[in-house]
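Backbones bend. Shown next:

***
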Amino acid sequence: MAIVALDAVTLLLQSEWMLFGILIVLGLHIFREKPKIRLIWFTVCAFCVEFISNGLSLYTLISPPFLFGMFFLLLSYFVMTVLCSGKKGKHPKFAKWFFYIFYPAHLLMIYFVKLAAEKVNL
């Protein structure tokens, strides 16, 4: 029931991953010991997000931007999850704090770029 509620919230907030964000995280948890199935799960969910957000167009499936984007999305996922050993690195505290700072900072930077682009009418 909680998963359905969280999915409803993501739809109401119009989040980038729609209802698939919660499903991806749930699937990654369920299949945490099976990297190949995790990759298939992520691929199917990412494909659905792209397909739905592009208006369910069959042209989307063969368009170069779609194929290029899917290739790099899956490549980055593969590198970060399938090739990862699951052990902490040499500097886990640095990595932890770096990402706690980097993630909100990069969102703030994107927001400022958006504001600047709106002023220039790009």
Remarks:
- Residues 88-122 form one domain.
- The radius of gyration is 17 Å.
- The chain is about 75% helix and 0% strand.
- The CA atoms of residues 23 and 53 lie 16 Å apart.
